[in-house]
Amino acid sequence: MTRLPAPLVTEEEIAAKVADLAARIDRDYADAGTLVLIGVLKGSFVFLADLARRLTVPHRVEFIAVSSYGDRESEEHLGSVRLLMDVRHDIAGEHVLVVEDIVDTGHTIAYLQRLLGARGPASLRLCTLLHKPDRTEADVVIDYLGFAIPDVWVVGYGLDYAERYRTLPYIGELGPEDR
Length: 179
Ligand code: IMP
Ligand code: MG
What we know:
22% of the residues lie in helices and 30% in strands. The chain has helices spanning 11-28, 45-54, 107-117, and strands at residues 6-9, 35-41, 59-68, 81-85, 95-103, 123-131, 144-148, 154-155, 171-173. α1 (11-28) crosses α2 (45-54). It is globular and about 50 Å long.
């Protein structure tokens, strides 16, 4: 029998938080016209799917893919982010909401905010399901936050460990036995 990662955030807690975030976003963008949601692949795809289906404001879904250079734990490449796949649509003049799974060091989001901000959106905000405040080095403003969590490796609800556990329905803490 395979052991499952210990739950840190349950399915019920996630669902309640997603509904809550969607209600806030609905209120904030009520008069903004079409909102452009940009999901950061791959980790955000589950969260984005649930969040977008909860929104009642008009919105469009786009994706962007980035990766950190080399091993994220190696000091040598710390903070370098590479664009793997860009959005397919010009965002100049648009209200853009970046949807992330987790802000860890913050380098990915800092990079994306520079990249997208330079394209002249009408507004640019960030919604992230998770944040590890103890690990964050970059200066990032989180407009919509799901849960602040301790410095542990989490999986499930889109998040992976070596591509495993992405479709676990809850957020679990990866233990040594789960690796
Ligand atoms: P950052 O650039 O250090 O903020 O890293 C952001 C990215 O690292 C996230 O979008 C995730 O893809 C990945 N990441 C960071 N921490 C975790 C974790 O605990 N579990 C799974 N992925 C993580
Ligand atoms: Mg991510």
